[in-house]
Design goal:
Layout lengths: L2 H13 L12 E5 L2 E5 L8 E7 L6 E7 L10 E5 L2 E8 L2 E7 L10 E2 L5 E7 L5 E6 L5 E6 L11 E4 L16 E8 L2 E8 L10 E7 L7 E2 L6 E2 L7 E11 L5 E9 L8 E9 L5 E3 L6 E2 L20 E3 L12 E5 L5 E9 L6 E8 L2 E7 L3 E7 L2 E6 L5 E9 L2 E8 L6 E8 L5 H4 L6 E6 L7 E8 L2
């Protein structure tokens, strides 16, 4: 290991970073004058493609959900602006789609099928003025297709564009996995930024690499500073750093946004992080300060009183399947936890014939929590283990779930009582994440009810714990 890598690891260890952050993976960012917009993988959550806005890269506010309805699992999107119009490209259902809008706040078009395979679309405009998409095919080289001038269809067959940078064979990764092409023009060069090494698995799997060319058609020269971003040791505070996009900040300084898992907490999902980069005298970019990493979106207020039947930006719907171990008629709405340890509560009202409760939910194979009807409580230690007890708390009660570093306790109390009754404790949720169950999700807080959402819930609170 060279001196540069040792310095990076030492710097990371000295910071002792312990901060809150939310699961927002596969970040894509657009600089639009003095404004910055970012969106992320929606996966199967609806409505999808929550767009964030900032002018300083620190304070971010939701703008809209650009794709309320879509099919399949959407991921690794690309948000761009071309000729005054906004576009988001994303893969799902073994093809790629595009949506567009003349105003970033919408309305956005319905998804248009580009009828081209591959994943992680990256948009570029060549020196010929033509529009292109670069696409990943996993362990194979990147391919490139030309788009129609309006960006809404593909006009050429895929052709090989880039074969990647070969990292040392002894590095512990998931494999080669050349992904996430992002293309920008800077000076006389096009810069192609990609991800390699796999997006989860071992702590040292993911990375960001760079290449450049004077033509969008290549050939591409790999950067001598590769990898630009990488986790070199499982002792670092962030694991599997990768999927990066370089961009110019409001102060004229340059940054890269990427995602990573908090050390030891795959359950929290991947966090969007901004880190400064700098341009070298020979025309490459590299990390400027590995200590200066800023996790994003940790300031969203998760508390919600559901006044007037409305709910906040933090909630997204998961449509349960008929094979679900819980009632597929339940409406399940999820919010992403921000901390390694937290306590969350909600008031629940169960009408006759209804079921309602609160869960910590990764997917239908991995969850814990409690559901109740007017007669019984059902406690799920996990998707395969449940216990039933008589509902002694009535049709209105409070549920509390405490997650202390992946050890969970579930409590219930009557509305007019101050006494919490612990109905389950010492539940280990540390394995409820992608490396066990796939999907690339996070273990989210879920409110479930057959009566709809948010009907039946009041005063949802989220309290971080030290």
């Amino acid at each position: 290991m060279n001196f540069r890598r040792l310095t990076i690891i030492a710097a990371m260890l000295m910071t002792g970073i312990t901060m809150s952050a939310q699961d927002y993976p596969d970040p894509t960012i657009l600089k639009d004058g003095n404004d910055y917009y970012m969106t992320h993988s929606p996966f199967v959550y609806h409505p999808g493609l929550l767009i964030w806005h900032s002018t300083n890269l620190t304070d971010w506010e939701p703008v809209c959900r650009a794709c309320p309805e879509f099919e399949g699992s959407g991921y690794a999107p690309e948000i761009i602006k071309h000729d005054g119009r906004y576009f988001i490209y994303y893969p799902a259902l073994n093809t790629n789609f595009v949506i567009w809008a003349d105003d970033i706040k919408g309305p956005w078009s319905k998804p248009i099928d580009l009828k081209v395979g591959g994943i992680d679309p990256g948009h570029a405009v060549g020196e010929d003025g033509k529009r292109y998409l670069f696409l990943s095919n996993g362990n194979a080289p990147l391919v490139r297709v030309q788009l129609a001038d309006d960006g809404l269809s593909v006009v050429t067959e895929p052709e090989v564009a880039y074969e990647g940078w070969q990292f040392p064979a002894e590095w512990e990764t998931e494999g080669f996995w050349l992904e996430a092409p992002k293309i920008m023009r800077h000076g006389e060069y096009y810069y192609l930024t990609t991800a390699e090494g796999g997006t989860a698995g071992p702590a040292t799997s993911h990375m960001v690499v760079s290449a450049r060319s004077k033509s969008i058609l290549g050939p591409w020269e790999n950067s001598p500073y590769n990898p630009i971003v990488h986790t070199y040791s499982a002792e670092e505070p962030w694991w599997s750093k990768g999927h990066g996009t370089p961009f110019e900040g409001p102060d004229g300084k340059w940054h890269i946004v990427y995602h990573a898992y908090p050390n030891g907490f795959h359950t929290l999902g991947r966090v969007s992080i901004i880190e400064p980069i700098e341009w070298t005298g020979d025309g490459w970019y590299k990390s400027a300060d590995p200590e200066d990493m800023q996790p994003l979106f940790s300031n969203m207020d998760l508390n919600d009183d559901f006044k007037n039947g409305k709910y906040g930006w933090q909630w997204a719907n998961w449509k349960l399947s008929r094979r679900s171990p819980i009632d597929s008629n339940l409406n399940l709405w999820l919010a992403t936890a921000q901390d390694k340890s937290y306590q969350t509560e909600v008031k629940v009202r169960v009408r006759k014939g209804d079921t309602a409760g609160m869960l910590l939910f990764y997917n239908e194979e991995a969850f814990t929590g409690v559901l109740a009807d007017s007669k019984n409580l059902t406690v799920y230690s996990d998707a395969k283990t449940k216990s039933d007890m008589r509902n002694k708390f009535g049709k209105r009660f409070r549920v509390r779930i405490t997650n202390n570093a992946n050890k969970v306790e579930i409590s219930v109390r009557k509305m007019l009582s101050r006494k919490w009754v612990v109905i389950a404790s010492d539940i280990d949720v540390s394995a409820m994440h992608h490396n066990t169950y796939a999907g690339f999700y996070a273990l989210r807080i879920g409110l479930a009810s057959t009566a709809g959402f948010p009907d039946g819930f009041r005063k949802f609170t989220y309290i971080p714990m030290e």
